[in-house]
Amino acid sequence: MxxxxxxxxxxxxxxxxxxxxxxAGLATFNALYCTQAMLPTLTHALDISPTTAALTISAPTGAxxxxxxxxxxxxxxxxxxxxxxxSALLATxxxxxxxxxxxxxxxxxxxxxxxxxxxxxPAVAMTWLSEEIAGVDxxxxxxxxxxxxxxxxxLGRMIPALLLEVTSWRWALFGAAxxxxxxxxxxxxxxxxxxxxxxxxxxxxxxxxxxxxxxxRPELALLFFFGFAGLGVFVSLYNYxxxxxxxxxxxxxxxxxxxxLLYLAGSWSSARAGAWMQRVGRGPALTYGAIAxxxxxxxxxPAYLWLTLLGMLIFTAAFFFVHSTxxxxxxxxxxxxxAEGASMYLLSYYVGSSVVGWLSGYLFASLSWVGFIASIMVxxxxxxxxxxxxxxxxx
Length: 395
Prior knowledge:
Strand content: under 5%
Subcellular location: Cell membrane
Protein name: Inner membrane transport protein YnfM
Organism: Corynebacterium pseudopelargi
Family: Belongs to the major facilitator superfamily.
Membrane topology: Multi-pass membrane protein
CATH architecture of the largest domain: Up-down Bundle
C-alpha cells in the first residue's frame, strides 16, 4: 500500500517544501563551485599556479567531505530543518566576504570554511524530504531537489564567467554570492516546520561501527570507489579545461562559462539511468558508462574545438549516468543503516573531488594536454575494471 502520510502534492506546505529545497540546492551548489569557471582569471589576478587556483575548489569540497557525516549525525539530535537553515545561511553569508580576500591563502581558507558550512545541506536534505513528504510524492520532490543541485552548480560556474566580461573577478564572485544568499534566505523563509522528526540520542560508537561495516562489504567498497574516482576525474577535467579553451582555442571567459552548459547532458543521462538499469542490469550499466567516460576523454585530446566539446558532452553524460547508477545501487545493497551507507558514498564522492581534482593540477602543469588527459584517463579505466569485479561480486 502506498504511503500517503506526510505532505501531499497539491497542498500549500508541499509547495513550500519543494521550493525551499530547490532554493537550498541553488544556494549551496552555486556557492560550492563559484570559482571553477574563473580559475584561469585567478591564476593571473593573484599570480598563482593553476594547481593553487584549483585549491579554491578542492578546499570546500574536501571540507564538505569531512563534515558531511558529522552534520548528518547532528541532525539526528537537533533536527534536519535547523541544520539545513543554519548551514545554508552561514555558507552563503561567508560567500559575500570572498571578494575581500587579499591573497590566495586567504581565499582558499575562506573557501574551506565555506565548505564546512555547506556540508549540512547535502547531508540532510534528502532525509528531510523522505521524512516529511508522503511516500507517493517523494520521487517528484527528490527530483526537484536534485535539479536544484544541478542548476545551482551550473549557475555557480556561469554567472562569474559571464560577469568577468564586464567587471573584475571580485565583483564577479560577489554577483554569484548575492544570488546564493538570496536563495538561502528564501529557503529559510519557506521551509515548513518539521512535524515527523523525532530526535534521538547520539551514539558515536554505534554510528562508526555501522560505517566501518559498510566498508567491509566488497560490493559497497567498490561503489564507494566509483564515487571517489568518478567525481575526481570529472572535477579534474572541468578544473583545467578552461585553460585549454583560452590558451589553445582563444575563447573568452564568457564563452568558457557557456561550456558548462554541457552539464545539461548530465541531467538528461541521469534521468534515463533507471530505465537503462532495468534494461541491461546495474553492473553492465556501470561498465558501459565507464567505457563512455574513457571515450569522451579520448575525443577531447586532439586540438579541435568541436571534437573537444563532443568529447566533453559524452564524458559529462557518462559521468552523471555512472553516478546515478552507483549511488542508487548503494541504497539497494545497504539494507541496514542506509543513512550511513549514503554518507560513506558522499564522503568518498567529495574526497575524490578534493584530492584527485587538486593533485591532477600537478599533472596539468608538467604534461601536455594529451599527456594530462591520458593520465586522468586511468581513473575511468579502473572504473571499467571495478564494474566487472562488482558484477562478479554481486552475482
